[in-house]
Structures are given as C-alpha cells and as structure tokens.
Amino acid sequence: MTNEPLQAPINDGAQVTAAPWLDAQHLDYAYPRGKPAVRDVSICAAAGSLTAVIGANGSGKTTLIRMLAGLLRPQRGLIRLGGIAFEQWEPRLRAREIAYVPQSTTTAFPFPVIDLVLSGRSPHTPRFRFESPRDHEKAMEALEAAGAGHLANRSFTGLSGGERQMVILARALAQEPRLLLLDEPSSSLDLKHRADLLRTLTRLRETRHLSVIMITHDLQLTGSVFDRILALRCGAVVAQGKAEEVLRDDVLREIYGDPKVRSQRVGDQTLVWVEL
Amino acid sequence: MVMPRSAPLAPALPQRVGARIARALVILTLVLIVSVALGVAAGSQRIDPASLFSDSFSRTLFFRLRLPRVLMGLVIGASLAVTGGALQALFRNPLADPYTLGVSGGGALGASIAIALGWGARVAGVPLVFAASFAGAMLAVTMVRTIARTGAVIQPGTLLLSGVAVNLISAAAVLTIQYLTDPTSALRILRWLIGSLDVVGLAPVGRMVVILAPAWLALLAMSRQLNLLAIDEDTAATLGVNVRRCEQIVHALCALIVGVAVSTGGAIGFVGLIVPHAVRLMFGEDLRIVLPGSLLLGASFLILADALARTVLPSNELPVGAITGLMGGSVFLWLLRRRQQSAVI
User: Which CA distances in Å does B207 have to A102, B68, B75, B280?
Assistant: First the structure.
C-alpha cells in the first residue's frame, strides 16, 4: 500500500475543516445484464453523524451501502476515506475504520456466538497471533452492548433471525470502527431491541464519535434520532436533509410512489402511515 | 409468558483459542504416535522389535516395506484431510472434500496421462508425474469453482454436482487411457483408481515430503483467513481479507497437495471429508484448530485404515481406498441427511 499520511485532508480549496470522514461522490453501479442500480449518488459521513438511507424496495439502498463497505466497486465515482481513495487503503486497515452489518447472515457451520463476535477483532490482532484476553473482554462488552450477552455460548445456527442480527451487530461493534454501515438492522428486531439499537448508536456517537449510515424502513425511529436522511428512488437521490424536510407527505409520496402516504409531526418524532 | 433463561447470567467464556489448539494438538499427536505403532506392528508377518538388530530379513521387511507404507499413509492421510478442511471452509460446504469436488479425479487423470506417456523422468528432483497430477487437480478445482459460482454466490448443490461430473469425466478418461496403453502401464493406472499405499523403500516418501511439508505449512498459515471465509464471504471481505487472492492461494495449495498425494497413493476417497468433521466434533469449529488437527488425525486415520486393510482378510489384502470409501460414503450420506434436516442445501 502507499505510505500517504492518513490524516492528510483533501484540500479542495473550499472547506478543509469540515472534511467528512467518508466522502463518496457521484457513484454509479449497474449489475451485469441489469439496469443501473445506483445512479450518481453522493453521500458523506462526518465523525459522529447519524445518516439514514430510506427508499422503496429495489431502490438501490443495499447496492449503495455495499459499495461503501468495499464489497462492490463503483463503476463511476470516487469514495474517499479520511481523504484517501478507497482502493489505496490496505484491506485490514480499512477494516479497522468501517464495519458492515448485512441484512442477514447465515453460516454453514455451527460457530459459537462468542467466536463470531471475536472475529470482529481480527483486523486489530497481528496476523499470526491469537486474540488476547483484552480482545475477549472487548468481544463480551460488544455482545452486552448489542443486548446479546446471554447468547455468548450458543451456536449461531441455532439462533432466530433477530438474535443473529444482534450478534452480527455485536461483531461490528467489537471491530471498533469509526463508521458503522447497517443494512436494515431493525427489520427483524422487536420493539425493545429496536429502541436499544438506537440508544446504543446514540451513546457510541457521544462517547466514540462513531458515525453511522443505516438503511431503514423504520421511519418513526428515523425521524427522532438521525441528523440526516437520504431518500433513494430508482437508484437516484430524490430528497435529502433533516427529518422534517424529508418526512413530508409530498416527498414521501414521491419516494414510495403511493399517493396515500400521510405523515404527522408529534414532538420531535414523525408518524408516517398509509391510508388503505 | 417469561421463559426461564437456560444459560447462566454470566456465562463462562470458552477456553481461549491458543489453549484449545494446544490441547487438541497434544491429544492428536499422542493418537498419531499410537497409530504409527499399531501400523508398524500390523501385518501378516510379525516383526519382533528385538529381531530388527539381529535378523536381516526382519530388517529389510521393516525398513523397505512396513515403515515406508506407514509413513506413506501418514503423508497422504494428512494431505487429504488438511485439504478437505480447507476446501470445506473455502466453499462453506460441509460436504466438500478433494474427492467429492473432483480434485482427486483431476489429479488421477493427470497422473495417468503422465504414466501412459512414459514420463518417468524427474526435473530438478520433482517427478513429472507430480507436475502432471498437480495440473490435473488445478484444472479440476478451477472448473468446479467456475461452474458453481454465479455472480458473487457459490451454489452448494451445483458445486457438488459439478464435482461429481468432473470425477466421472476423469474416471472415464483414465479408463480410456488404461484401455489403450500397454499392460504394465495399465496395471499401474488401475492402482490410481482404487488407491493403495504400496511402496518400496523410503525414497518415494522423502520425495513427497520435500514438496508437501512446505505446502502444508503454507496452508496452515492461511487458517485465520480461512476461518473468516468459513463464516461468510462478505464478512471476511469487510474484516480485511483479500478474498480473491486468498481463494487463489488456497486453490493452488490444495491442488498441489492433492496432486502429489494422488499421484503416489491414488484417489483414496473421503479421508478429507470424515477427518475434519471428526476434529470439529471434538475440538470446535475454529479453523485454526481444524486444519492442524486434520493434518494429525488424517495421518492417524489412514494409517489405521491401511492396517485394517492389510489384516482384515487372512490370505489377501484389501486396497485401502475400499476401506475409506466404505466408511466415508456412509459418513457422507449421514451428513447429507443431517444437512437436509437443517435445510442448508
């Protein structure tokens, strides 16, 4: 890898001080023999920011987040992390900065939960060393923070979908990233665990300046916590801004293509529903 | 209703990986020592340890036939088992093994071609048969993987089916070569199809170890990456594993190890399937235990299977491939049944 200093900010002449930690510009992606999945999407995440990505099914949310996780290479556009182009990062060093929680994870082998969480420590442990007692402590802490401490000795294959999601979240937390990418983490969580998830994220934002980009269909929770909402439709950005700017009837109708979407502000939350 | 929690509130952490590996390796090394002793002792002709110093016939029998055969079992068993463990992790498929994926078949075909063409020569000490067998194994693993991968996903069912197809094609090609070639070569090729550890003198074992030992070590050095790949490919990638490069290295190492093992011992089936599962059942899922554990247990397993093959019939000896095939086939079916119940495949 190149030996460029990691702290070098991109100097575009404009706003050096507010340089975001992750900065993706004009991303395009199309699957082989498919129509474009993501078109000209730009997204950035400053330290300690919470960003929600919303949109109908098939609007390109997962493709976008997989590009940000380094799993897909954008066909056009550039992703910079700490001012350095994505491809120039050594994979293990990048893995200390970004963690990714996919929609669902299945394993072919019955790994114990604690081992899966410990695997999150692997970018931090030297190549031919085993995890230290400190790594074990951090794995247990992460498991507790994800509300899954009691699952430590269970086998991953025997868990429910929601429990699996908590375990994979714990692994991402054990990775101690600066940026956490979450793909619909709340979809199979119950009400309490959804709230717990957001409490954990806001706490980590305060204590560790963690920034989060999260795909969600959970507009109620989105409105109260997230600094910024990015709405996709057919792979392109249709709206972005604060919750009260995006979660409005007219914008939501365009995002979801349904004329009967309604929304209402209640305190700092937004209620969204569809009239049947 | 509130369900009572079965697990204690503060669960005791499982032992750390380092300690678990140490325990596994000590136990399996002891098993290997016992297996070597049993393997050396087994046979139609009893060899008295004391007579090794006095009786030249006993000495010849021991050093030219008995010991080389046991060592050959050790080397080939270790090779097949460790590649089985690695391939299972790489393809995230509990039914993967050099035999079921057609890697052994490809290697046997390469070796057969070399024998039929009379390539007995060695280049820089490496027998050309090894090189041909490696090429065949590499071709097979590349084909199987290319067919089974659609986009980013490896289809487990397609993987095994294409392995079966590659095996069938290789076997048919080997039979054709055997039919066309002269009787001496034909007899030698027949051995490849069944698998046997028949060997005279220590030199052939030495030639294998020189190539295999570095390849084993290189594969063991990949066990951390393989452990992450065994969880899930995306997981491995986001944890900093260079998935493509890792796959290529493991493919090449597995093809090399299997090629060399098969070109000498033949396509001995299912060792790579049974042994890693046995290690998993005993010592857990971590590949950093499964790989070195399979190396040791695979060696013991093939030595004992061969000892059984030599002694089970009073007058004649069975090919060891028949024994491992019978045992491995049954385990395969059992695993398949279990997988089906948990609906993975």
Answer: 48, 12, 11, 31
Q: Is B33 on the interface with A (CB under 8 A)?
A: no
**Of A137, A152, A176, at which residue does a domain stop?**
A176
A136:B93 CB<8 A: no
Q: Which domains does chain B have, with CATH numbers?
A: 62-341 (1.10.3470.10)
Q: What is the mean pLDDT of chain B?
A: 84
State how many domains chain A has: 2
Write down the pLDDT at residue A76. Answer: 93
pLDDT score, position A80:
92
Q: Which of B7, B297, B258, B152 is nearest to A114 (CA)?
A: B7
Please indicate whether, in this complex, the C-beta atoms of A131 and B288 are within 8 angstroms of each other.
Answer: no
Model confidence at B6: pLDDT above 50: no
Q: Tell me which residue range forms the domain holding A140.
A: 105-176
ipTM for the predicted complex comes to 0.85
* CATH (domain of A65): 3.40.50.300
Name the band, by pLDDT with cuts 50, 70 and 90, for residue A168: very high
Same domain, A83 and A196: yes
Cβ-count burial B38-65 (b if 16+ within 10 Å, e if not): ebbebbeeebeeeeeeeeeebeebbeeb
Whole-number mean pLDDT of chain A? 85
Q: Which residues of A touch B11 (CB under 8 A)?
A: 149-150, 152-153
Q: Do A130 and B14 touch (CB under 8 A)?
A: no
**B9 vs A152: CA distance, rounded Å:** 10
Together in a domain, A9 and A55? yes
Tell me the nearest-neighbour CA distance from A226 into chain B, angstroms. 24
Q: Residues A70, A187: one domain?
A: yes
- Residue B219 in this model has a pLDDT that exceeds 70: yes
**Using one digit for the tens of pLDDT, what is the confidence trace for B90-122?**
988 888 888 888 898 899 889 888 888 877 666
Q: How far is B285 from chain A (nearest CA, A)?
A: 6
Interchain pair B228, A122: CB under 8 A = yes
pLDDT tens, position by position, B145-159: 888 877 666 777 788
C-alpha B125/C-alpha A48 separation (Å) is 62
From the list B124, B140, B95, the residue with the least C-alpha distance to B256 is B140
Rounded Cα distance between A191 and B314, Å, is: 71
The alpha-carbon gap from B271 to the nearest alpha carbon of chain A, in Å, equals: 19
Same domain, A206 and A229: yes
For B14, which of A112, A123, A171 is closest by C-beta distance? A112
Reduced to 3 states (helix: H, G, I; strand: E, B; else coil), residue B74 is helix
User: Do both A41 and A134 map to the same domain?
Assistant: no
pLDDT one-digit tens code per residue, A117-139: 999 999 998 877 888 888 999 99
Question: Are residues A5 and A132 both part of a single domain?
Answer: no
